Amino acid sequence: MQPDISVKHLSKVYGDGFQALKDINLDIRRGEIFALLGPNGAGKTTLISIICGIVNASSGQVTAAGYDIVKDYRKARETIGLVPQELNTDSFETVWNAVSFSRGLFGKAPKPAHIEKVLKDLSLWDKRNNRIMSLSGGMKRRLMIAKALSHEPQILFLDEPTAGVDVELRRDMWEMVRKLREHGVTIILTTHYIEEAEEMADRIGVINRGEIILVDDKASLMRKLGKKQLTLYLQEPLADIPANLADEPLSLEDEGRQLVYTFDIQKEHTGIAELLRKLASHGIDFKDLHSSESSLEEIFVNLVRARS
């Protein structure tokens, strides 16, 4: 199946010589939620802006829903909805008129039933006759999404969609995004909230210093790059780790009350059985144990640190 977004050898160099993007190659599948992660200044917004036709690339090619974003700009842009980071709205306009006007900008005929559905899905229906200036910050964020969905796009970009909104509203918006995906909309999400990507994404791409350093399925990424830890809660605290265990991936925590063993879940042998035998030979007893896996945040931080 043809990808909804295809980026080939894309680079961007600004007039002052700063290279924001370096030979980006990326395919985003139809109907997936793709999370693009990266630290501030990594190139996330520049990449989105080029795909959406807001910024011109220095070199490379991009297609959206099969349309070249330069040669078939109008057709490509019609397939895309964009929710930018900044809240740019006409404060004196009503919610209904603002969303209807956005639809008209794409040359779409009026379709009140669609506008009504979008507003209801985003819990804005009761505010449809309110002026935008009267809305809360969270409601304005919902309005930006409604405007992006007004022309029924096949692809939706969400650039930091939940920045500055409370946890409850964030959860509501996650649910709305899932429903859009169920209806076949391809969603590209940039976020600083690692738990947002962990909760929502099918695949994850990591960008750093203008380069894509990894793209993988979320589950595969966490399986391949994640570490697992076994925490042993000791009967008696240890002052230090025994000498013949010094080469093991062990650390003491909680003033010697916890012994933490870190292992690679990809390896055939975890070494846990041998570790427990060694501990027993030293008379080190434990009263409980607990295992945990790396979070996506830990994987992301380690990836960026390794490439810095």
Description:
Helix content is 33%, strand content 28%. The chain has 308 residues and is an alpha/beta fold. The protein folds into 2 domains: 5-222, Rossmann fold (3-Layer(aba) Sandwich); 226-294, 2-Layer Sandwich (Alpha-Beta Plaits), CATH 3.30.70. It has a 6-stranded mixed beta sheet with strand order 6-7-8-3-9-10, with helices on both faces. The protein has a 4-stranded antiparallel beta sheet with strand order 2-1-4-5. Strand 1 (5-13) and strand 2 (19-28) form a beta hairpin. Helix 3 packs parallel to helix 5 (137-149).
Can you lay out the helices and strands and say which pair or pack?
Blueprint: E1 5-13, E2 19-28, E3 33-37, H1 44-51, E4 59-64, E5 67-68, H2 73-78, E6 80-83, H3 95-105, H4 112-121, H5 137-149, E7 155-159, H6 167-182, E8 186-190, H7 194-200, E9 203-208, E10 211-217, H8 218-225, E11 227-234, E12 250-253, E13 258-264, H9 272-281, E14 286-293, H10 296-307
Parallel strand pairs: 3-8, 3-9, 6-7, 7-8
Antiparallel strand pairs: 1-2, 1-4, 4-5, 9-10, 11-13, 11-14, 12-13
Helix pairs in contact: 3-5
**SSE topology string:** EEEHEEHEHHHEHEHEEHEEEHEH
Q: Give me the Rg, rounded.
A: 24 Å
Query: Biggest sheet, strands in spatial order?
Result: 6-7-8-3-9-10
User: Which structural class best describes the helix and strand composition?
Assistant: alpha/beta
The global form is elongated
- The named CATH superfamily of the largest domain: P-loop containing nucleotide triphosphate hydrolases
